[in-house]
């Protein structure tokens, strides 16, 4: 959800507005991969025309994709080949006690592993022992290598007979990433990776390929070890901390997590969400059409430590208020304190929603001990940052009271160089877990414009969510104790309504004390994205 507020020469407030989401939330480059070998034992597969451009606006620089089940729909071909292999083997081995190879067996013992490791792991689960054999063994069932080679024969026969389908959403995301200068790699334990890409016509989308052939040549360990992912980063010349891993296997997300990648995104293609989260995925989606390059960017913390302050907003109230003051964003004309968007009115002791404008003073008269005291007050302008949400099957909106929602983790950072305030938090509501990420800035070249980007991700629940964005004209000056004695109300609502051109977004006019006759107008526009690349307003 993006939340934009415009402060004009005449300003201020708004009512609340609910925005309900539905159920949920090209390059022509034709360069191909080439194979090179040197010194007899070093083998890499790398695009000779690897691009040297880097994205300026993204926190990540590279993306590493698993092949089967992420880029291409070969996972089904692999699963069918494994089932044919093991069912035939087990019928011969176990006779009347035969127990077929199941989908659960595939996910638990085989998925994502090099094929010889997959054979070994599954046979061990059935208490069957075979000699290792040699990779040059003929396809058969006498050794582990022979079984693995038989599986490869079954797979290749189907591949060349029926071809291979791609995941269109993955291809579109790959094109978007490359258009922004993000380097891309494919990492697979399969020896057939290059052939699958060739048949699918997708070789040109990857700068680097590290597959089963490379693993054998370089002695790399298979998943859940991170070797092949880290080798991709090495060849791309990008650190793992600035790279993403896309995986559909538990062993793959575990490898990404173990390799300390900046983000690990799991794809749940087969009712394995909990396994992927437990394995180390930062977020799990059913398809990559749920994401775009900017939502992925939200998964990455701001690592530019030279210009970044990490602020504590969860300790004593005085510390919270200090941190929010230090995390103010502004442009010289107006500024807003760093109180969280979900702060409710009346919680000023802990979180103070303060927006101030240069020259925004009001002269007021207050009777104190029988005397009329006249003062000029630096006025707190109506709050434009109010934004919260709730699951549609709940009556409770997310707030910071702790009554219905528990904040288990939270971190707030301000990048002084970029003028960007970022907040990440983990939220628990009943048995549901959510992650939120907000970013806030005040525009420098459009001096009256402030913006918030707010995203929510569910870790274990699917359903509709309603957002509520608010402009609060009832705001009072309550920032210091002296305001308890001095008049702290500086705004009267004159009028509120909607601009037809904004399709229902509301606007309120407020005025300070009537004698000033200095009206202010604040306009709020909210747009939301859910499983699509274009916003709705």
Summarize the structure.
This protein has 537 residues and is of the alpha+beta class. 24% of the residues lie in helices and 29% in strands. The strands form 6 sheets. Strands 11-18-19-20-21-1-25-24-23 form a 9-stranded antiparallel β-sheet, with helices on one face.
Could you explain the architecture of this structure?
- With 537 residues, this protein is α+β, with helices and mostly antiparallel strands.
- Helix content is 24%, strand content 29%.
- It has 12 helices and 25 strands.
- It has helices spanning 74-94, 103-110, 115-125, 144-162, 168-179, 193-200, 212-218, 227-236, 250-258, 273-279, 293-297, 317-326, and strands spanning 2-11, 16-20, 34-38, 42-46, 62-65, 183-187, 208-210, 243-247, 263-267, 283-285, 308-311, 329-330, 334-336, 355-357, 361-368, 371-378, 383-391, 406-415, 420-429, 432-442, 449-458, 465-472, 492-498, 506-511, 520-527.
- It has a 9-stranded antiparallel beta sheet with strand order 11-18-19-20-21-1-25-24-23, covered by helices on one side. Strands 7-6-5-8-9-10 form a 6-stranded parallel beta sheet. It has a 3-stranded antiparallel beta sheet with strand order 2-22-17, with no helix packed on it.
- A hairpin with a 3-residue loop joins strand 3 and strand 4 (42-46).
- Helix 1 (74-94) packs across helix 4, helix 3 packs across helix 4 and helix 9 runs parallel beside helix 10.
- It is elongated.
- Mean pLDDT is 79; it is low at 8-56, 500-515 and 531-537.
């Amino acid at each position: 959800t993006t939340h934009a507020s415009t402060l004009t020469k005449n300003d201020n407030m708004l009512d609340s507005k609910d925005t309900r989401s539905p159920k949920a939330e090209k390059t022509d480059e034709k360069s191909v991969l080439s194979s090179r070998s040197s010194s007899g034992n070093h083998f890499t597969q790398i695009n000779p025309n690897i691009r040297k451009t880097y994205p300026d606006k993204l926190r990540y620089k590279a993306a590493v994709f698993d092949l089967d089940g992420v880029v291409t729909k070969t996972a089904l071909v692999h699963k069918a080949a494994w089932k044919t292999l093991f069912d035939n083997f087990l019928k011969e081995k176990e006779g009347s006690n035969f127990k077929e190879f199941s989908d659960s067996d595939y996910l638990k013992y085989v998925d994502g592993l090099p094929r010889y490791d997959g054979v070994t792991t599954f046979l061990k689960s059935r208490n069957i022992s075979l000699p290792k054999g040699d990779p040059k063994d003929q396809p058969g069932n006498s050794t582990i290598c022979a079984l693995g080679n038989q599986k490869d024969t079954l797979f290749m026969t189907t591949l060349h007979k029926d071809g291979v389908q791609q995941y269109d959403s993955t291809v579109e995301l790959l094109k978007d990433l490359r258009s922004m200068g993000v380097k891309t790699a494919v990492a697979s334990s399969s020896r057939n990776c290059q052939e699958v890409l060739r048949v699918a016509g997708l070789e040109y989308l990857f700068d680097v390929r590290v597959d089963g052939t490379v693993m054998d040549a370089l002695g790399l360990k298979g998943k859940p070890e991170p070797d092949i992912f880290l080798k991709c980063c090495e060849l791309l010349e990008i650190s793992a901390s600035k790279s993403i891993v896309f995986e559909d296997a538990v062993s793959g997300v575990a490898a990404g997590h173990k390799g300390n990648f900046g983000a690990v995104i799991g794809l749940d293609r087969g009712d394995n969400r909990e396994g992927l989260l437990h394995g180390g995925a930062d977020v799990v989606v059913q398809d990559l059409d749920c994401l775009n390059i900017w939502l992925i960017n939200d998964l990455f913390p701001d690592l530019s430590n030279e210009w970044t302050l990490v602020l504590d907003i969860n300790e004593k109230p005085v510390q919270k208020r200090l941190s929010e003051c230090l995390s103010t964003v502004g442009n010289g004309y107006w500024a807003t304190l760093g109180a969280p968007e979900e702060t409710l009115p009346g919680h000023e002791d802990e979180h103070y929603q303060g927006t101030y404008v240069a020259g925004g003073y009001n002269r007021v008269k207050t009777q104190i001990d029988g005397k009329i005291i006249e003062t000029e007050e630096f006025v707190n302008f109506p709050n434009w940052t109010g934004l919260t949400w709730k699951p549609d099957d709940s009556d409770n909106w997310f707030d910071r009271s702790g009554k219905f929602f528990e904040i288990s983790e939270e971190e707030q950072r301000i990048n002084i160089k970029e003028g960007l305030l970022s907040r990440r938090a983990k939220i628990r509501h009943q048995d549901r877990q959510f992650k939120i990420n907000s970013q806030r800035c005040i525009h420098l070249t459009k001096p009256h414009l402030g913006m918030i980007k707010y995203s929510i991700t569910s870790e274990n629940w699917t359903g509709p969510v309603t957002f509520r964005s608010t402009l609060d004209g009832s705001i009072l000056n309550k920032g210091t104790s002296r305001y308890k004695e001095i008049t702290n109300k500086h705004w009267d609502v004159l009028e509120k309504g909607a601009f037809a051109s904004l399709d229902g977004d509301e606007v309120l006019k407020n005025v300070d004390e009537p004698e000033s006759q200095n009206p202010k107008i604040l306009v709020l526009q909210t747009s939301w994205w859910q499983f699509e690349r274009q916003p709705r307003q």
